[in-house]
Amino acid sequence: MHSRERLLAALRGEKVDRLPWVPLLDGYYMTAQPPGTDILDAYREVGADVMERAVWTYGWNLSLPRDPEGLQQLEAGEVVRFVDEGVTVTVQLRSEPRGRMLKRTYEIPGKMLTERALYTEQSPYIPFPVEMLVKNSEDLEAYQYIVSRRKFFPNYEAFAREDERIGEEGIATDAGQTTPIQELLQHIIGIEPFYTTFYTDHLSQVESVMRTMHQKNLEAYELIAQSPAEVVIGYENTSTSYISPTIYGKYVSPCINDYADLLHERKKLYLTHRCGLLKGLVELIRDEQDDGVVDICPAPTGDLSLWEAKRAWPDKVVIGGIDPTSLTSWSVERLKTYVGEVQRQLAECTGVMLGSGDAVPKNAKLENLQAVTDVVRSWQGARF
Q1: What is the mean pLDDT of residues 239-257?
Q2: DSSP string, 256-311
Q3: Helix (H) or strand (E) holding 207
Q4: Angle at Cα 357 formed by Cα 289 and Cα 10, nearest 5°?
């Protein structure tokens, strides 16, 4: 089998010639590579099957400027302002001693919302939130107004070009929208204020906002469903470190099921990225309609091994199993021994792919990544 055949077969729960190996190589890892390094060359150097992430089939209007000149100005540190659907958006990405600060404001009649996030040497791909967008109930009302004016547009040709470029080496995957409560917790309000203020004192308003967010997410998933992408990944970052099973079951699972149903109508495979503490949610995740869970992480970062996940969710594809810290700190021999154990535990299973439990760190050892490749290529056990 070549890699594309192997990955698609594994994702459909069919037997494959060997365990697929799909580390999550993205901007974290790539920032440590020589400037201009192609992501396919990074996968080739590792020797892994290519499962490229976040090759978008769509975009939306109220985030960054869409014109090349505006993007160039942003990268140069200039203030960029644009107006769409009655919302004025101002964005600046400037250098400061701690890193690069992204500041964005949204202006609507009678209200302005501001958010700031910092790109650092340790996190050069996804910035750390410094100032959350929504700080009080009045901000929440304004945010709902802004979300209601979000428009999505297709970007199918760019996806098709990248997927064709990958060819037999693997697949490109699209990125779906995050469920509303997860988005509010992680990116819009923040965990502590969400629970201590918004969920406690303004629940009906929060639920109204989440309904608007979900409706807009469905519009995005409609576009994805019509796209050339075969595999869609929703980046939930699920973890009981910040959401309880009760709240999760009420607000996350119904959205996951809606997105899955919509994508399944067009024969898409829908996976969910869940890289945190999952043992407390095993039964809820089992009953959801997504096709699989990706970037499953064992201890110490997570709490679920890949074989435990497969036993808990026999009807789902499971992907991950290697804690990112092991790629930076373990010896080659220790890592090989662990990967051998993963293979032995899962030798009779289908619908399994070995990967990193979340993104491969920028300081991951190449010899460790290549050691995993050596083990999966040499395994002589049962066919997966």
Answers
A1: 98
A2: HHHHHHHHHTTT-EEEEE--S--GGGHHHHHTS--SEEEEE--TTTSS--HHHHHH
A3: helix 203-225
A4: 55
DSSP 101: E
pLDDT band for position 191 (50/70/90)? very high
DSSP per residue over 235-247, as a string?
Answer: E----TTT--HHH
> Closest by alpha carbon to 296, among 315, 321, 316, 325?
321
C-alpha–C-alpha distance, residues 344 and 358, integer Å: 22
Residue 69, burial from CB neighbour count under 10 angstroms (0-12, 13-18, 19+): exposed
Rounded CA separation 209/194 (Å): 13
As to burial, measured by CB atoms within 10 angstroms (0-12 exposed, 13-18 middle, 19+ buried), residue 207 is: middle
CA distance 106 to 149: 12
Q: How high is the pLDDT of residue 384?
A: 65
Strand order in the sheet with 128-131: 80-84, 87-96, 99-108, 111-119, 128-131
Cα separation of 229 and 5, whole Å? 15
Measured between alpha carbons, how far is 319 from 4 in angstroms, rounded to an integer?
A: 16
- Top-confidence range, 94-98, 262-266, 376-380: 262-266
Q: How far is CA 222 from CA 154, 214, 288, in A?
A: 10, 12, 19
Residue type for 93, please? L
Place of tokens 């993963």: 342
How many CB atoms within 10 Å of residue 107?
Answer: 18
H or E, element range at 83: strand 80-84
DSSP state of 21: B
pTM of the model: 0.96
Element (H, E) at 53: none
> How deeply is 320 buried, as exposed, middle or buried, from its count of CB atoms within 10 A (0-12, 13-18, 19+)?
buried
**Cα distance between residue 173 and residue 159, in whole Å:** 9
> Could you give the CA distance from residue 309 to residue 23 in angstroms, rounded to a whole number?
18
CA distance 210 to 38: 38
